[in-house]
Design a protein that fits this description.
Layout: H1 7-16, H2 20-28, E1 38-41, E2 45-47, E3 53-55, E4 58-63, E5 69-77, H3 85-100, E6 104-109, H4 113-123, E7 129-133, H5 149-158, H6 165-176, H7 181-194, H8 197-210, H9 217-222, H10 233-253, H11 260-268, H12 272-282, H13 288-292
Parallel strand pairs: 5-6, 6-7
Antiparallel strand pairs: 1-4, 2-3, 4-5
């Protein structure tokens, strides 16, 4: 599971754009949903005649042009195993079916592969059509031009432990930068919380090199580094050393071995343009040697 991402962060991401939920079902879980014209959030509480109340994380309703419900999706974000879900998940589907009078799906979203497998086993016992969206179903988004910022951020959360997480995170941050300031800051923070400290350091360096402009506290604190670069030679030397260290950090994060000779060459380089070129190559190179050749 990602190191610091929490339950509320995933719920918030899906709440920001509920239309992503049926998109995930159709595209990545191959669910044949009926035609619909609108996607709306609905009441996520499921109260029975008895005093017990069950509350899901999100509920969305797909409606036709006449605002008649054609399908409903209950969303549960699950970060760990919970034996009680064996009893509450069937209630969600049955209660919503009685309320909406349309087909109902239960979508379990988890960034943890082992939790996803557990959820699949548990839901096999339920009569409600249950789908599990785990790391193996969430696409790996590395294209910085992707128009889908929410899916890109979800990709970071689902694949935070992958070898190419730096590329995934950069793509999500680039996608978020095209949104409003408030949403961009929110999504940047979700990315920041989802990845490890080592990836955060690499992100800082890569974003500084690419001259990204963001409004989150993370960006305000870190991306402004070096905007007054060049005031004196000592600062330039320090900045070049930082670039070289960033190249080494990215290579280490991607699991690419670096020879002693290559490490010495990187650290000895004082040409900022060359170091920037090597830093860009480090993001996608298949070997450390490919970075400098």
């Amino acid at each position: 599971m990602p190191p610091t991402i929490n339950h509320e962060a995933v719920v918030l991401l899906l709440r920001e754009r509920p239309a992503l939920i049926p998109e995930l079902l159709r595209t990545w879980l191959q669910v044949d949903l009926p035609p619909f014209a609108a996607v709306t959030l609905s009441d996520s509480s499921f109260t029975q005649v008895s005093p017990t109340e069950y509350r899901a994380d999100l509920t969305v309703v797909l409606s036709d042009e006449k605002q008649v419900p054609v399908s409903a999706i209950v969303v549960e974000v699950q970060l760990s195993r919970d034996p009680e879900k064996r009893y509450s998940w069937p209630v969600y589907g049955a209660t919503l079916f009685a309320r909406m009078r349309c087909p109902v799906y239960l979508l379990v979203v988890t960034p943890d592969a082992s939790v996803a497998e557990w959820a699949r086993r548990v839901t096999e016992e339920n009569r409600v059509k249950t789908l599990v969206l785990g790391p193996r179903n969430v696409p790996i988004i590395i294209d910085p031009e992707t128009p889908d910022a929410e899916l890109a951020v979800l990709s970071v959360i689902a694949h935070a432990g992958d070898d190419n997480i730096l590329e995934i995170a950069l793509a999500a941050i680039a996608a978020a930068s095209r949104l409003s300031d408030e949403r961009a800051a929110l999504y940047n923070d979700l990315v920041w919380r989802a990845v490890s400290a080592a990836v955060r350091e690499s992100l800082e360096r890569a974003m500084e090199m690419k001259n990204y402009e963001f409004v989150s506290e993370f960006a305000k604190k870190h991306i402004a580094i070096g905007r007054n670069e060049g005031r004196n030679e000592g600062r330039n030397e320090g900045r070049n050393e930082g670039r070289a260290e960033s190249v080494l950090s990215i290579l280490a994060e991607r699991g690419l071995p670096v020879s002693d000779d290559l490490r010495a060459r990187l650290l000895a380089c004082q040409d900022g343009d060359i170091l920037d070129r090597w830093l860009r190559r480090a993001l996608t190179a298949k070997s450390a040697e490919e970075v400098v050749n």
